[in-house]
Amino acid sequence: MSSREVPLDEFATDFGGLRRAVPKVVHRMPSAFPSVLLSSGRQLTLRGAGHSCDGQTVTDGELLVTYAPKTAAAQVRDLGEGLIEVPAGMSWHGLERYLNRRSRAVPVLPNYLHMSVGGTLSVGGAGIDSVRYGMQVDHVERIQLIDGTGASRWCSRTDHPELFRFALGGLGTAGLIERAVLRTVPYHRYTHVHRAHHATLTELAGHTERIAQRDDVDIYWALLRRGRLVSTTGWRGSDVGRCDDENCAIVPNLPSVEHDDITETAFAVGDRVRMWTDYVVPAGQLAPMLATVEALLSRYPLNRVLMMLYILIVRRPPDATSFAFTPVRTDPVSIGLGVYTTVDHDPAATAATRDVFHELLERCCELGGRPYLYGANDLDDAMTERLYGADLDHLAQLRSSHRLEHVNAHLPLVSATRRTPSHNGRW
Ligand SMILES: Cc1cc2nc3c(=O)[nH]c(=O)nc-3n(C[C@H](O)[C@H](O)[C@H](O)COP(=O)(O)OP(=O)(O)OC[C@H]3O[C@@H](n4cnc5c(N)ncnc54)[C@H](O)[C@@H]3O)c2cc1C
After folding, report:
1. DSSP 16
2. pTM of the model
3. Where is the FAD-binding PCMH-type domain (predicted)?
């Protein structure tokens, strides 16, 4: 087993830098034996690449880091019929390169590729392809999951379906994803994109809703950045016949090459903290959600800290699983709104930004939406119960029966399962 004491500053923060703690011991996969660690009963925090933004992977205890992009490629197995078996610690970048060489591709790539497969599947995964293919978890055939006794089992829609439903998008609360079998799609090197500029958020909301009603679009994203509102609609393939004005282009390898807006935004923040969050509302509800954001945009703190608004459309496959904690529940078409801020290392500024996020979360819930759990969301027990209801009880049962009480126990989802049940027969 590989474990070591870590120097003071290494692993000191999550990606957002909001929470700070220095783990006493860092275990690394694949050299660590995860089943031995998980069965030890010691408090353990799971981490992929650590890019979640609100302390989800921060601990002053023991950390199990699965991200191992350099060694992962040797462990990939092509199962045929478009299925690929991947270690959780692989990066999307490595996986997409591996697949492209074989004329295949990941159906939905995130726009930043140096994150772990296991960590992203543990939050849900969305991207510019989501308008066609839904969430990344919609393309998982099965996962190998290790529980708190160290037992490993394959879970799918038919084998251990409850574990499957809770582990994907479940922030590591239902066990450690060790490997995943993913569906792939044919690789198209080129994408035809059409950019549109919008004068107002209202106009952008209308445009996005119209695209959400269509089922012939392969790519969609929209941004408010540096005062400009731009949407991009795309079709895979290099059909130049579609390019009839200056706003059209044929680009290779989206999102890995062209789609650098998020990456640039992510890494250009100096010594400020990143407070990112995404809200996902059912199609038809973007306008009121954006109106709430717009009302806050001219006031402190959003007028100082906002770097970008980011919009995606998520169209789920017809047979989609109703995952317990993913940002899309059962709605066939949803729209995600990312609110990405960078804030001074100042408690008053972060508290003010949290207040804004709280207001937006309330609005998102009123509109029938959900937060994306990788982000900065203050989920108190009442809000958690309102969002996830009876699934919190299911999670408590799963964690108890699979002896997972010591794994990721710091997460709000888990503390909400320890609340006194208040459903009084409502569920
Ligand atoms: C620059 C940037 C760009 C992003 N772009 C996108 C995007 O386009 N689309 C999108 O959907 N998201 C995006 N995100 C959010 C991203 O998907 C999440 O932050 C995701 O968690 C990152 O994966 P990770 O490997 O860093 O996971 P981590 O942050 O390490 O872990 C996330 C959660 O999963 C748990 N976990 C990690 N590994 C495992 C495992 N193997 N088994 C069980 N539980 C595990 C952790 O305990 C934690 O609760 C972006 C984030 C950043 C910082």
Report:
1. S
2. 0.94
3. 19-187
